[in-house]
Amino acid sequence: MTTSGKEVAHKYSMDIPHVSAVEVPLVVANKDKAIGMLGGKEKIAKIINSVDKSYGSNTNSGLSNGEPHLELRLRDDPFHHPIQSSLSVNEKVLLKVSIPKKSLPKDYYTDPSKYTVRDLISRSNENGSPHYKAHPVGIIDKTFSFKAMADFQVSTKNNDLVQDFNRSVLNAQSYSDLEKYIGKHNNFTSLSDYKDPSTYANEDHQLPPPPIFSPIRFPFDYKYQKNPLTSIIKDEESGEMKVISKKGTLKLHTIIVDFHSTSVPSSAAPELIEIYEKLKSSKDLQEHSFDATLLRCIEWLRSVFDIKPIWLRKQLEDIAHPDLKRVIKQALPYVSYIFKSGPWRFCNVKFGVSPKLDRSFWEFQSEYFRIPGLHFNSNPKYSPRRLVPKTIKEGKGNENLTVSEYLLFTGDKLPLTVTYQVGDIIDPDIVNIIERSQADLGDHFYRDMPDFQDGWINRQTMETIRRIIRYKLSRIVNEERIDHNKVTQLINKEFNENDDDNDVSDIKSQDKIEGDVSDENEGDGDDEVEEHNDQDAMDIDPPEDYENDVISQIESSEIPTTKSLRGLVGLIKQDSLNFE
């Protein structure tokens, strides 16, 4: 149709029937079979006629329980889990498209699936004048679609018990059929029968399947992608497929020393010395490259280790220039070694320095405390004070080596670390304890030889320091007032070798137990609370025969169930596991 030389669209009357549509996720070759899979014509008509447009306005809105919906059954099985339909009430126009036979491709009737309606229309229009006709024949106001996932399925055709249940119960024609079935399975009619596990052992899995396996209706795209840094290879010996990393782990070559070792390293590992010499001799290092930054960090660390020979890594990261912070972990093995156990655990020690040979190194001993359920805020609301650690002696330039007070134990503020060097503690009570002990005990303040647990300091002084820190940390964490009378009691409390100090049970000092430290995580066991915050490991350990003591007390009260409780001990107790 043209008007004044312009082509306009055809106009059609919309006084046409309203119809409903059912979209199935199938290629329908047999319409009768497809209708049967939906429950038959009568059921489809009943559902369509019972649905009002007020049921929903969102496209593909799922129907809830109680609302009429169609079910698509993919196989004939009473225990089959059908796919539930979704209803859309958005209106659509149903078009009838007529294409002359002479415009159809020659192979259309032999393989019609090769062509879409759009392809056929395009072909019929190749001559310039349209050979197809299209006009509306109906308005679709209800659309039932099956876009939900099919639930997990169980085939019951080889399940004798289920087939018998289907014939005798689900398809029972009379009460006598049910009576025969119940009589044949009379072992399930009494409650006492279920007390015998052998009655319902179900070794052959002959029970009917549950009505639903998964409540998830629509698929969710988790966007799983292959890790670009891994590759799958076949093990030549076992033939199994293994996932390996394509990115080699940067080996730090940190030298790790046991507390009982009789000597300490005087220089870095040979591999690091070779790398360092290459970096120094290289003349084409870019200013902000990793290698150039690493070289600058090594030189800076040597200068600060000359001032203070033993450092905690957190303090070094706090005082380092922002450009150097990212390479401190890689640079430390060039200038220091670490103890994997003992009173200087978690500390980086300058090469050639042995804190076990001189009692003046008591100041650098580290104490680590576990805090259950504590998450530090790394961004305080206000800027903290910066202080020169007490273990740094006065000297030119040393006044610039200031650390945040949140890395030191102040006794009244929540810290950002749980590891402290004894000489850097600025809590007045701790400082007074140390000064008073040194004045009262003189040379007896020190041990003749450093102890694995307490280092150079005498046991009573160290236990008093730990008690005070544990108590104050527990109060600060719980936002409770510190009772100075309690602090005085802890200071004056007589030391007892077997004292468990049960007054403070929610925070304990870590037992310094020897353990293997791999190159893969070397230096990571420092004073970061997130790395040690293990709720199960926080509580004070009970006595070795704790459960027997409890049961013995129950037996003394003549409770008849004691025997059953003793049998449960093996079920609820989890022994410690040593992982390699």
TrEMBL record:
<dbReference type="GO" id="GO:0001002">
    <property type="term" value="F:RNA polymerase III type 1 promoter sequence-specific DNA binding"/>
</dbReference>
<dbReference type="InterPro" id="IPR042536">
    <property type="entry name" value="TFIIIC_tauA_Sfc1"/>
</dbReference>
<protein>
    <submittedName>
        <fullName>Piso0_000414 protein</fullName>
    </submittedName>
</protein>
<keyword id="KW-0539">Nucleus</keyword>
<dbReference type="Pfam" id="PF17682">
    <property type="entry name" value="Tau95_N"/>
</dbReference>
<dbReference type="GO" id="GO:0006384">
    <property type="term" value="P:transcription initiation at RNA polymerase III promoter"/>
</dbReference>
<dbReference type="GO" id="GO:0005634">
    <property type="term" value="C:nucleus"/>
</dbReference>
<dbReference type="GO" id="GO:0000127">
    <property type="term" value="C:transcription factor TFIIIC complex"/>
</dbReference>
<dbReference type="Pfam" id="PF09734">
    <property type="entry name" value="Tau95"/>
</dbReference>
<feature type="domain" description="Transcription factor IIIC subunit Tfc1/Sfc1 triple barrel">
    <location>
        <begin position="21"/>
        <end position="155"/>
    </location>
</feature>
<feature type="compositionally biased region" description="Basic and acidic residues">
    <location>
        <begin position="505"/>
        <end position="515"/>
    </location>
</feature>
<dbReference type="InterPro" id="IPR040454">
    <property type="entry name" value="TF_IIIC_Tfc1/Sfc1"/>
</dbReference>
<dbReference type="InterPro" id="IPR041499">
    <property type="entry name" value="Tfc1/Sfc1_N"/>
</dbReference>
<feature type="compositionally biased region" description="Acidic residues">
    <location>
        <begin position="516"/>
        <end position="546"/>
    </location>
</feature>
<keyword id="KW-0804">Transcription</keyword>
<dbReference type="InterPro" id="IPR019136">
    <property type="entry name" value="TF_IIIC_su-5_HTH"/>
</dbReference>
<dbReference type="GO" id="GO:0001003">
    <property type="term" value="F:RNA polymerase III type 2 promoter sequence-specific DNA binding"/>
</dbReference>
<keyword id="KW-0238">DNA-binding</keyword>
<feature type="region of interest" description="Disordered">
    <location>
        <begin position="494"/>
        <end position="546"/>
    </location>
</feature>
<feature type="domain" description="Transcription factor IIIC subunit 5 HTH">
    <location>
        <begin position="207"/>
        <end position="370"/>
    </location>
</feature>
